[in-house]
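dumping the sequnces here before i forget
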Amino acid sequence: DAGVTQSPTHLIKTRGQHVTLRCSPISGHKSVSWYQQVLGQGPQFIFQYYEKEERGRGNFPDRFSARQFPNYSSELNVNALLLGDSALYLCASSLVVLSSPLHFGNGTRLTVT
Amino acid sequence: GQQLNQSPQSMFIQEGEDVSMNCTSSSIFNTWLWYKQDPGEGPVLLIALYKAGELTSNGRLTAQFGITRKDSFLNISASIPSDVGIYFCAGQHLGGNQFYFGTGTSLTVIP
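..and the predicted 3d for all of it:
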């Protein structure tokens, strides 16, 4: 079975632009979470979706938004990009929300110039 | 936000040696996870723990859920070069929807 797939793998954007990142979960997993990982740090929680509904949101500005589709895939959108948004964006899928291990994709490396 | 402290921050060991690392938090967790991350890749799940005192193995790796529920430990026996990477712990509160990640332990194995 395929693992979590993310696209694109790398992206370079200019300040003020908008970006959309995509994620396909492991087959059978209904929950998708998004994490931001800055170089040298552990991942930080951005969003969690389960059955197309937002179940949790981390401490990120409203410029960050996400959605989950009927096939359980997900998009993360970031508007008005700032230099500080440069990071590895990780998508993780899990069977359910509670006590369910996260399985990560290889991430999208976003560079904002 | 919740901070998880991992120690040591980095380790340099000889191939064949055993490794021990730990993760501590200021609050109680209901689930602990351990991950390994290689450069340019996403974290890979190593071990999941669900009960205080639980001891779980995955090959040469053994992890324990601390009895206080505020800590967890990972041991690697007879290290090999492919063990090189950054190890992260992650914890989830009872009823919580997010995992909090530690600061990571960087492991270097010298052949």
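Residues 35 and 44 of chain B are 5 Å apart (CA to CA).
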